[in-house]
Amino acid sequence: PVEMAESRYGIMVDEYSLHTDGAGAGEFRGGSGAVRVYRAMTDGQLFTASFGRNKYPAWGAAGGSDGSYNYFEIVRADGGKEGPMGITARTVLNTGDSVRMYTCTGGGYGNPLLRDAERVAEDVRNGYITAEQAVADYGVKVNEATFAVAGESEDRRAAWAAQTSRAVQAATACGKEGTAREDDCGLPSRAASEKCGKEEVVA
To answer: Is the pLDDT of residue 191 over 60?
Structure first.
């Protein structure tokens, strides 16, 4: 807990927040990591840390983009910076020096162009991604004043058209009413579910 760390170790926790770098684009985007900033309140403190996943990002899957890395950086009281780095041992911190620790954003799952446009707009509203990332990664233009969907790219429309076509073909080929399983209809998509007569539950 923040209060216990502050009372025991001579530090101040200046920040504990979500790491919203926008990485891990996907139909289901990767979850945000965390940011913690520790500031030394006395001289001569020693900082040792080792992060896994500091060289290779969290993997995306099924067309989703990779997430980001775990890393930390040291910000000196005079404004100087050291890092980013994934491993350090017995680094001296003096009064006012800070350690900024970032855990990675997870990898995305599925084609980002198939993420529901309203969900993309909500991601912008909530600060998980920027409006620029919404366009670049998801093909969705979001009005930054109202956070309404303002348009979609041609690539996004083409991806949805291709997905719907494949799903309908798979559903037709399966020849089973009321079935939307991947082994029967080929694609566990909304279009396949509708074709097979069963509404898909979207997490």
So the answer is: no
Q: What is the mean pLDDT of residues 32-52?
A: 96
- What pLDDT is stored for residue 50 in this prediction? 94
Contacts of 115 (CB under 8 A, 6+ apart): 25, 26, 27, 28, 29, 138, 140
Q: Decide: 77 and 25 in contact? Cβ < 8 Å.
A: no
